[in-house]
Amino acid sequence: MKENLITLGIESSCDETSVAVMKNGREILSNIISSQVDQHKKFGGVVPEVASRKHVENISYVINEALEIAGVTFKDIDMIGVTYGPGLVGALLVGLSTAKALAYSLNVPLVGVNHIEGHIYANFVEYKDLEPPFVCLIVSGGHTHLVHMKDYGVYEVLGKTRDDAAGEAFDKVARAIGLGYPGGPLIDNLAKKGNKDAINFPRTYLEDGSLDFSFSGLKSAVLNYLNNSRQKGIEIVKEDVAACFQQAVIDVLVDKTISAAEKKGLILKYPSLKLCTDNAAMIGCVAYYDYIKGHGADMYLNVVPNLKLGEKL
User: Fold this and answer.
1) N or C: more exposed end of the chain, with fewer CB within 10 A?
2) pLDDT tens column, 49-80
3) Is the peptide bond before 271 cis (omega within 30 degrees of 0)?
């Protein structure tokens, strides 16, 4: 096997067009992210058709920028890694079609990557000495998972959301208190000015021993609080609502993560903010480890919008 493998990673599962150039899976040579947040703000959320069209417009420019910043050319690329699910169908198809075209024209291997798996591997990009096994909490707009990573590509899902994902709840609550989109950063910024003990919103832990999550009840409690306050003419302090809602989510996430892990000598690791968002560096990292384990794809690879963690081609 070649000493230094160069991977071109492509991520287009939702509303970020991202391309990265990775060396040996963990070293970032470039990681370009073109966000569509401004395009979707006016709609209060991601519009799939708009997202797909923006990916088509952006992807060639993002690829060229990633290559230029990395100081490589197409001739230096040893493999292509691309997200094929889960995500928005049209958005995924743009990235996958581009990856297939590049892999075919460059005569290099194509590796399909699970987007959720990518979020786990972002930790390997951040921490060069990190090795499995470990317990990982994955929190995003569409997913909330608690996973035991036993080895590269080997997972046991310990818990997941039964209804709203944490990020989805953030977006809905942000809309309810008039903050707009995206809900996560807007609520977080507002919460810093509020009193997290002002309102006693519920924490849902489900049945004893369960590591699953449920945030629909909390979301409903916030909406009921807002509606009741408006009907009774009680002033709504948005800062307090944001702070108390966010704290309720965090409490459950943290408590269940600690319950899933060994209590003694816990070591906490998490990626830098750029690697926590949807990005192609994490996709390139997964592709590298899948490739050296002999996993690849052919030109018949298709997108799988509802792909589950641990499912392979």
Assistant:
1) N
2) 888 999 999 999 999 999 999 999 999 999 99
3) no
**Does 54 fall in a domain?**
yes
The set of residues, in sequence order, having a beta carbon less than 8 Å from that of 120 and lying 6+ positions away, is 136, 138, 147, 149, 155
Specify whether the CB–CB gap between 110 and 298 falls below 8 A: yes
Q: In this structure, are 88 and 110 located in the same domain? A: yes
pLDDT, tens digit (0-9, with 9 covering 90-100), for 125-161? 999 999 999 999 999 878 899 999 999 999 999 999 9
Nearest to 177 by CA among 147, 205, 199: 199
Contact 277, 97 (CB under 8 A): no
Q: Do 105 and 79 reside in the same domain of the chain?
A: yes
Q: Based on the fold, state whether residues 24 and 47 are members of the same structural domain.
A: yes
Closest among 306, 312, 289, 291 to 120, alpha carbons compared: 289
CB 266 within 8 A of CB 258: yes
Q: Is 214 found in the same domain as 114?
A: no
pLDDT at 40: 79
The verdict on residue 298 lying in a domain is no
For residues 256 and 143, the model is more confident at 256
CA distance 73 to 313: 29
Question: Is 151 in contact with 132 (CB distance < 8 Å)?
Answer: yes
Whole-angstrom Cα distance, residue 20 to residue 274?
12
**Residue 233 zone, left/alpha/beta (φ > 0; ψ -120 to 50; rest):** left
Q: How many CB atoms lie within 10 A of CB 213?
A: 26
Token output for 25: 């899976």
This prediction's pTM: 0.93
Question: Is residue 288 in a domain?
Answer: yes
